[in-house]
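Morning!

This is the sequence you dropped in the shared folder:
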Amino acid sequence: MGVLASYATFVAYLKIALLSAGVVLALVCALDWAVRTRRISPFSGVARFFRTRVDPLMAPVERVIVRSGGVPTAAPWWSLVALALFGILLLSLLQFAYGILSQAMFAVAAPSTIGITLASWAFGILRLALLVRVISSWLPISPSSRWIRWSYVLTNWMIAPLQRVIPRIGMIDITPIVAWILLNVIQGVFGIP
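The structure's back. Tokens below.
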């Protein structure tokens, strides 16, 4: 169990580092926004520093924003949003990996629970596939894309019969929600954690 404790410690330090980076980036973004919107004199030393050091780092974000029809002065705030989303995603993936690692260590310690552990992982993968399928349906991504196709392959056996029975509510397809609920019910009936 020393591995799990050191992993948890690593995640705790990473949370602190991400929070510190977020606070620093928020301060930098606020100052850069003030320079870009001329709330700070464009001839001050702070403005010159930001134009030479920070604006080149914001240039890729600014290009994406301008291509999407936004204003360049929003680049600092979108950078902050990107860091927040990256941090949330990274910590979620690390928590997911922690759960898998702890289940694997438990299954190795008690070999009689390997079947239950594998069933729990299967339900987790199906839920992840449903989530990816739903989120990808909101974006302009083809279901046959190599990054998304696996989620459709794993969930079509559940979704297709439900779509024949459950009508759409306007433009909204609620069958993934029903499939998610059914997965939870089945997992609860069989007592799989």
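Headline: Residues 2-36 form the longest helix (35 residues).

More detail when I'm at my desk.
O.
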